[in-house]
Amino acid sequence: MNLKKPLLLLFYGDDFTGSTDALEFLTLARVKTALFLRTPEPKDLDRFPGIQAIGLAGKSRSMSPSEMEDELTPSFENIKRLNPMHFHYKVCSTFDSAPHVGNIGKAIEIGSTVFNQKTVMVLPAAPHLGRYCIFGNLFAKMGTIGDGEIYRIDRHPSMSNHPVTPADESDLTLHLAKQTSKSIKLVNINTIENGSDAILDAVSKNKQTEILFFDGLNNSHLSTIGTALNELAKEQTLFSVGSSGIEMALGLAWKSQNIIETNASFKTLGEAGPILVLSGSCSPVTANQITYALDNGFEEVSLTSDAVNQEYHAKIIEATANQLIANLNNGKSCILHTSIGPNDSRIAETELYFKKQGLEKDDIQKACSKMYGRILGQIAKKVIFETKLKRILFAGGDTSSYAASELNITALQMIAPLAPGAPLCKATSDDLKIDGLELNFKGGQVGTQDYFLKVFKGKKL
């Protein structure tokens, strides 16, 4: 792959919504970025002249360690060949992970080996999303914007009850220690307050430490960390792990060093006709958004739990798509959902179905994400080809990755901000019905209750 200028950064997102989060903060920092759904070929890069950063949207957050090994090792090797200044393994700002699924420690082990890097830097904080790390402990706002209450992550009403990776430990150094045998130390807030030179000194003194965590409470801390990380990347590609705080940190450092220009400006896009919302999220935040949208003119279609049963699978997809097509052709924005909140009876029904198939608890959650994601994607594709649909919203980090993979998308670029971490994007595709489609991907915790209306309006409300 030939690039005229070295890439400032390449990131691999462990799910789709997290990948668009990183895409947004790079774009807002005026870094020309494209998010690819697969490793780009030269002809793909030719579509984006002057590109400065590349993202790869992955699914590793829903994978077992062995699956991660098979997926990440060749991906990281391909990334290494592009020789970016920075390579970032992008994880959720709530650090969703466990030894059996989405194991961040496993990703660190693979990256450390591929990039031949003894010490891996980890930055979980994302203050722009309401995620704060102090003395190693993670705190998260309810939602990502507004005046939501801030909780220690193991006491967070949603994350402590996450169906796949419930948060039961707020000290992330202890949380990660369950996922890897690598040595871990913390660069705490007191060191960061003393500036980038103090951080570099701490890194130098911990050359034998295999994982260094960084605290962070505000943009000043991120800028200081970003300056240090950029200094460390002068010798060779620097492999780091964390939230979109990495993109924010580097963007702030690049601005201060005049490596990039000032913030980008975006025009308001406005409405694009009726929109389609595809929700595989069981978050209470998304549940409130569904209820609010239904009270404000949206139509709903409930995807029954029988959809995962191969006996009914095709018929349900066909019938559901036809129902959505009819509503959209009548000018009605629609929400297709797999559940409304964590107590929806369809969740238990689906789990029971997979249990009868002989799956264990941990495998059931992965099977749910994969199956529902693919069903939502297949329905979306049928709807796109039978309507004049221009804008789609995908809600749910785990399911969105699988849903998007059904649409033959080559890459995404941000075209407008809507809410922190969830920009409105435009698709590039060899398929003319997909090319130019406007897409928004939001995690379960993202957005205020009027979020679906924001996407419909194409602007912040």
Structure commentary:
- The protein has a 15-stranded mixed β-sheet, sandwiched between helices.
- It folds into 2 domains: 248 residues, Putative sugar-binding, N-terminal domain (Rossmann fold); 182 residues, Four-carbon acid sugar kinase, nucleotide binding domain (Molybdenum Cofactor Biosythetic Enzyme, Chain A, 3-Layer(aba) Sandwich).
- By secondary structure, the chain is an alpha/beta fold.
- Helix 13 crosses helix 14.
- It has 15 helices and 18 strands.
- The protein is globular.
- The model has no long low-confidence stretch (mean pLDDT 92).
- A hairpin with a 2-residue loop joins strand 6 and strand 7.
Can you give me a brief rundown of this structure?
The protein has helices spanning 16-28, 42-45, 65-82, 104-114, 172-177, 189-193, 196-205, 219-232, 245-256, 284-294, 313-329, 345-356, 361-386, 397-404, 451-457, and strands at residues 9-13, 33-36, 53-57, 86-90, 120-123, 131-134, 137-141, 150-152, 184-187, 211-214, 238-242, 276-279, 299-302, 334-337, 391-395, 411-419, 422-428, 438-442.
CATH superfamily of the largest domain: Putative sugar-binding, N-terminal domain
CATH architecture assignment of the largest domain: 3-Layer(aba) Sandwich
Question: How many structural domains in the coordinates?
Answer: 2
Mean pLDDT: 92
Strand order of the largest sheet: 9-10-5-11-4-1-3-2-16-17-18-15-12-14-13
Shape: globular
